[in-house]
Amino acid sequence: VTTPRKRYTVTLLPGDGIGPEVISVAKNVLNLTASIEGIQFEYKERPVGGAALDLTGVPLPEETLLTAKQSDAVLLGAIGGYKWDNNEKHLKPETGLLHLREGLKVFANLRPASVLPQLVDASTLKKEVAEGVDLMVVRELTGGIYFGKPRGLGTNENGEQIGFNTEVYASFEIDRIARIAFETARKRRGKLCSVDKANVLEASMLWRKRVNAIASEFPDVELSHMYVDNAAMQLVRNPKQFDTIVTNNIFGDILSDEASMITGSIGMLPSASVGESGPGLFEPIHGSAPDIAGQDKANPLATVLSVAMLLKYGLGEVNAANRIEAAVLDTLNRGFRTGDIYSPGTKLVGCKEMGEEVLKSVDSQV
Ligand code: ATP
Ligand code: MG
């Protein structure tokens, strides 16, 4: 018996739809990995989203947020579903997620997009373009045009209706996202591409200036800059050229969805949202998938890979993270597939069985 080196508290927020199914698998994978690596976890499971609406009348109960804030990391399943789309109080489950991000002050959203050799045929791109893609989009999450003021609907001098929004970034906001991006690139292949529109937008001119300034703290990372229109094109033309991409809130929203479509496997993609201190929020990028909820059909691997991100980017437990990533690849190599990634000649399994196979692979990694 190994003495636990470290002890962490993780808040589990299963949420709605397939959330509870994939969280249950991910928790088992985390538990086994932890016991092998000599780490101890305590779990606090709390309601969020539609589940919380039904129980307490609000999508993010105060107790859920407090527990999340006091833990070392937060693992979320998914939020929302048809059931709450037209509820009387007009409280949407999804607002729970926005408030959770706000409450945890997570300003950096990390979204990897890798084309795994076993799933290259799922890519929307030609095989030779897709093969070997392994990139990470670091998106600024709490600033920019989605939050900037002034904003609103109004009337101009000709009496015509107008809508307006403001792209604002303060230097501290750019500096802190840049540092996270450089650190992320350092943990990967050491290449960072900053995406902006500095030829047109003043907010982007400051962005570029600050990213260049922060670069001096990271001489080991190779920095380049790209305009967003070109980046959108390069992502489908030659995505292999990218390692880590850092960009603002709106460009990151668009580019991270574009990057995820390159892989074509929504059930495989994890994400992390982190701040300067305090717990990070880790979740699959897919939604609650109400069409397959409760049928044991969900692919749990996006959530399992979110646990790997939790270990790597949330707790710095890199060995444990690597063990989980290797286990996922091993499970795919042994031919197991849920319906969303199935192809002829592979073995079709449900969510639970996929989880059991991942556990075997976790156990067999040296
Ligand atoms: P959001 O809730 O973020 O708006 P959405 O409703 O657009 O997301 P999802 O809930 O992610 O989309 O579902 C989109 C499609 O992908 C559905 O057909 C769903 O069944 C499928 N899907 C999503 N996640 C998974 C998964 N983990 N395993 C298998 N299929 C999935
Ligand atoms: Mg949905």
From TrEMBL:
It comes from the Eukaryota. Binds 1 Mg(2+) or Mn(2+) ion per subunit. Its cofactor is Mn(2+); Mg(2+). It is an enzyme of class 1 (oxidoreductase). PANTHER family: 3-ISOPROPYLMALATE DEHYDROGENASE. Belongs to the isocitrate and isopropylmalate dehydrogenases family. It catalyses: (2R,3S)-3-isopropylmalate + NAD(+) = 4-methyl-2-oxopentanoate + CO2 + NADH. One of its GO terms (molecular function) is 3-isopropylmalate dehydrogenase activity. Pathway: Amino-acid biosynthesis; L-leucine biosynthesis; L-leucine from 3-methyl-2-oxobutanoate: step 3/4. Keywords: Amino-acid biosynthesis, Branched-chain amino acid biosynthesis, Leucine biosynthesis, Magnesium, Manganese, Metal-binding, NAD, Oxidoreductase. Homodimer. GO terms for biological process: L-leucine biosynthetic process. It comes from Dillenia turbinata. Residues 9-358 form the Isopropylmalate dehydrogenase-like domain. PROSITE patterns: IDH_IMDH. Its EC number is 1.1.1.85. Catalyzes the oxidation of 3-carboxy-2-hydroxy-4-methylpentanoate (3-isopropylmalate) to 3-carboxy-4-methyl-2-oxopentanoate. The product decarboxylates to 4-methyl-2 oxopentanoate. This is 3-isopropylmalate dehydrogenase. It holds the Pfam family Iso_dh.
